[in-house]
TrEMBL record:
It comes from the Bacteria. The keyword Phosphoprotein applies. InterPro entries: CheY-like_superfamily, Sig_transdc_His_kin_internal, Sig_transdc_resp-reg_receiver. It comes from Siminovitchia fordii. This is Response regulatory domain-containing protein. Keywords: Phosphoprotein. The keyword Transferase does not apply. Pfam families: His_kinase, Response_reg. Residues 1-65 form the Response regulatory domain.
Amino acid sequence: MQTMSGYELSRMIREQFSISELPILLITARSQIQDIVTGFLSGANVYISKPVNSLELKARVNALTNLKQSINERLQMEAAWLQAQIQPHFLFNTLNTIVSLSEVDTDRMTVLLN
């Protein structure tokens, strides 16, 4: 890239997206330990040095894709569980309101029931 390094781009991406929201796979000719450490510190999930082995690349992309899918499924399950916890409370509160109106304002209670 001509205007910035991959490390800089990774840092910019991490300012907006977490490591689980948007995985970053760096492919570079740099293979020194310090370069690899810098890549991970800049926010990369995976660091691959050139020359790239196509099987390794495919396996790493699949691993990142599976991880992202697993995280999304977990978040959906959590949201469904929270929603299931809220619904009984909502029903209980609604019924409580209607019952309290039965002693005070039967016309309003009828409107709520309808």
